[in-house]
Amino acid sequence: MRVVFMGTPDFAVPTLQALIDSRHEVIGVVTQPDKPKGRSGRLQPSPVKEKAVENGICVFQPERVKDPEFLPELQKLAPDVIVVAAFGQILPETVLKLPKYGCMNVHASLLPKLRGAAPIQWSVIDGDRESGVTIMQMDKGLDTGDILLVERYELSPKETGGSLFEKLSQLGGPLMLQALELAERGELEPVPQDNDRHTYAKMLSKALGEIDFKKSAREIERLIRGLNPWPSAYTHLNGKMLKLWDADVAQEAPKGKPGEIVEVRKKTFAIQTGEGQLLVNSLQLEGKKRMTAEDFLRGYPLQTGTILS
What we know:
single chain; alpha/beta; seven-stranded mixed beta sheet; six-stranded antiparallel beta sheet; 8 helices
């Protein structure tokens, strides 16, 4: 097939690479415009653009795909299919209807669960036992199209947003190639989504990471894992931001108020929550590097009764 690929971040790169390595022809890549990065403000290309340039593939970077001047460029390419993975823009109907086989999307959840911008992190935060990748036939809605193929993945007890991101990114390429093979043979069997069962994965923000110790230790522990590595879960210790990177849950009887350090051990310390206690294993104080709780306690002796705000 003649394939146009649309994608932007790291998550999309393995799918693009799978297409490049296949018998299909990637005739163009569409990605978001270069963004300024760091203090220098120097423009940084997306990971997808870097992979396309590396392989000599023509790159398009429209501010908006629905801009009238971009559609003729896409029409000239005459793709059989448009493959989309974490592109970051809603496609208009003129684009959706352009290719013979339409637009197929790699979505990192088991649709209709977790439609939206951040399904990977919310899967961890919500405490899902399994996640996966769905190949979806795109329509004009937000992740509402028919399901074409699904690959499931069972989360590990210590799964983080970062580790799940890596694992699901590797599933998209082989599954998309399978979908294209079935499409060519006329053997795809689209399944409409059950809209009554859908949930929404809202966009992540730094504010989301502020820990509310009135919640249960189990909820907080999942938040810590889900927001690792970005935007991270945090609280404040003596006026300084304290990021928590890893913790365990202890179902102990209450010993203090939520946010209070109720016990200090050699390798960890316990924070009272609304239900149970949080045993901190890894953390990072503002201005310091990430370290184990044991290393932190050697240089920063904590006192029981200290309140994290």
